Amino acid sequence: MIGQSPIRIGIAHIVLILGIVVVAFPIYYTFVASTHSLQTILRPPLPLVPGDRFFENYWTALFGGVGRIGGVSVGTLLLNTTVMALGIAVGKIVISILSAYAIVFFRFPLRMMFFWLIFITLMLPVEVRILPTYKVMVDFGLIDTYAGLTLPLMASATATLLFRQFFLTIPGELVEAARVDGAGPWRFFKDILLPLSKTNIAALFVILFIYGWTQYLWPLLVTNRNDMGTIVIALKKMISFADADTEWHLVMVTSILAIVPPILVVLFMQRWFVKGLVETEK
Amino acid sequence: MATVDLRDVRKTYAGNVEAVKGVSIAIADKALCVLVGPSGCGKSTLLRMIAGLETITDGTVAIDGKVVNTTGPAERDIAMVFQNYALYPHMKVYDNMAYGLRNRGTPRDEIDRRVREAAEKLELGALLDRRPRELSGGQRQRVAMGRAIVRNPKVFLFDEPLSNLDAKLRGQMRVEIKNLQRSLGVTSVYVTHDQLEAMTLADTLVVMNAGRVEQAGNPLDIYEKPASTFVASFIGAPPMNLLSLSQNGDGPALPDGAKLAAAPKGAATLGFRPEDAEATVANGAAHEGLSLPATVEGVEPVGAESFLYCAAGGGRIVVRVAGRATANPGDRLEVKAKPEKLHWFDREGRRVSSI
């Protein structure tokens, strides 16, 4: 920065700190509430420091089961949501990297038509095609299954386009060198294309995992049983209109638990793809 | 180890664009054949057809006597060095060189032995654990060569391998490639647009233009007896001086009317090399051969020699002078050349043998 005077630095820091407080305080307060008993929460004011019910509340939520969602434990919900988010992220990446590979590196009849077909699906998000998709899932008997939760969300034009753009930047000479070196299509994909795509895959994984984790509308439709629900749906179901009915301490615990896995994914993958960026940088 | 035979090879792209229009070349075992020509002359297409990266529209390509038209690049037993090296960016130098062998299922210890041997030959021993981006241009070039050597192929193919290097390094690598090719004794095809590279490297030089072979043969023969005005102007730096002649009653003459005693019938262009001409102050002495009044327009001192750019005979010519040039722009000189140093070309640009 130009002209760093102590006053400027001070002001900058004050603004930053204010920003952090605005963003972080609600999360902190949620955490505080998750460590108090229901009685303490319902009797204002809520204390500003964590209480003594941390282990008890988290234990009850994770393994005991929550009454308002049919006694299903948050542990089950976390498992469901993880399976769904992972399924969507991995499925999308696998499908889109393969279709992009086919479109960029192979010459086959109607290649461009397939490309445009994929491209057009960009204009058809889940919300638009939700009724027919639901009908198909019912007919296949996929209601209340992991397949039903993940399959309709897997096909992804965005990821295909991203990989296509990346593949187009790979010099033709590299492909030819691999051909001369005796690498067939599969070897080329596995030994050269995949390692070079590491960074893109990591970045996409983060985005897609969070996309899957926060899905609301589709899981709401396709799951009826409480033990197949995702954490976001369950959180909604836990809250009743009547304040006294709601087990607020467990709601708070669930909220905290719901945001931990995406944070972990971001932290873990970030390190990974920064490494990737540094490595491929020329 | 192998010969390469091209017989009437053609390449037509979609839309009826003819890139290669019937090329026949026979490359002897262990020879280094250089394909040279301006960009778009089809030399790279030809090389890629030998490599199997490009389909052959017509004609045959034979390696070691076997027609390989429909054989894939990996089965032709060739190795190629690309212009941009085409190293695998995520692999270490060692793996870059070993990759082709691994795909062929060569035993591990055999791969290790060959890679280390090639690395030693190319002085890459200390770099085996580096990745391509940590190497300089020259080192990358060496790795690309190493990748070709370890395979121990029948034919090496070079696609303008030195054009991304700076001038000094290029000269150095040129010598190395030549020595390496000699010592390994592998038949090689080398594509370049640089006539200096072509002249110095080639056992057989093939000058291409617009999809056809203009002239093929020993580089010095081509230099001394260019078959066409195209070859004459492409080979040699600065290129051969070419002056167009007009036809009047008693034979070819220069545009300014000066008659040329030695001109053969049908000559439409006169050529002579800058180093075969002599520029002196006009003294009126009778001279056998060419004698042209010239006006100096520019002087380029290079050090060991100087080039005089002159207007003469209705065109522009260059004359090489050893050492420092004493002439200045505006000076009037007489440019002379011996009769045996004159080249004559007909209206189509074909060489006309002097009388």
UniProtKB/TrEMBL annotation, chain A:
Query: Where is the protein situated, by its record's location annotation?
Result: Cell inner membrane; Cell membrane
Q: What's a GO cellular component annotated to this UniProt protein?
A: plasma membrane
Q: What is this protein called?
A: sn-glycerol-3-phosphate transport system permease protein UgpE
Q: What does this protein do?
A: Part of the ABC transporter complex UgpBAEC involved in sn-glycerol-3-phosphate (G3P) import. Probably responsible for the translocation of the substrate across the membrane.
Q: Name one GO biological process term.
A: transmembrane transport
User: Highest taxon of the source?
Assistant: Bacteria
Heme among the record's keywords? no
Share what the entry says about its subunit structure, partners included.
The complex is composed of two ATP-binding proteins (UgpC), two transmembrane proteins (UgpA and UgpE) and a solute-binding protein (UgpB).
Gene that codes for this? Answer: ugpE
In this protein, which residues make up the domain named ABC transmembrane type-1?
Answer: 78-269
Q: Which UniProt keywords apply?
A: Cell inner membrane, Cell membrane, Membrane, Transmembrane, Transmembrane helix, Transport
Q: Which residues cross the membrane?
A: 7-29, 83-106, 113-131, 143-163, 200-218, 248-269
Report the family membership. Belongs to the binding-protein-dependent transport system permease family.
Renumbered to this chain, the signal peptide range is none
| Pfam families hit by this protein | BPD_transp_1 (PF00528)
* InterPro entries recorded: MetI-like, MetI-like_sf
From TrEMBL, chain B:
Gene Ontology molecular function: ABC-type transporter activity; ATP binding; ATP hydrolysis activity
Q: Which family does it belong to?
A: Belongs to the ABC transporter superfamily.
Q: Note the CDD domains from the entry.
A: ABC_MalK_N
SMART domains registered for this protein in UniProt: AAA
- What's any one GO cellular component for it? ATP-binding cassette (ABC) transporter complex, substrate-binding subunit-containing
| Compartments, record wording | Cell inner membrane
Q: What NCBIfam families does UniProt report for this protein, alphabetically? A: PRK11650.1
In terms of Pfam families, this protein maps to: ABC_tran (PF00005), TOBE_2 (PF08402)
Its membrane topology, per UniProt? Peripheral membrane protein
Keywords tagged on the record = ATP-binding, Cell inner membrane, Cell membrane, Membrane, Nucleotide-binding, Sugar transport, Translocase, Transport
Please give the name of this protein: Carbohydrate ABC transporter ATP-binding protein (CUT1 family)
- Top-level taxon in the UniProt lineage: Bacteria
The answer on whether this UniProt entry bears the keyword Translocase reads: yes
Major localization listed first in the record, in broad terms: membrane
- What processes does the entry annotate via GO biological process terms? carbohydrate transport; glycerol-3-phosphate transmembrane transport; glycerophosphodiester transmembrane transport
Q: Where is the ABC transporter domain?
A: 4-235
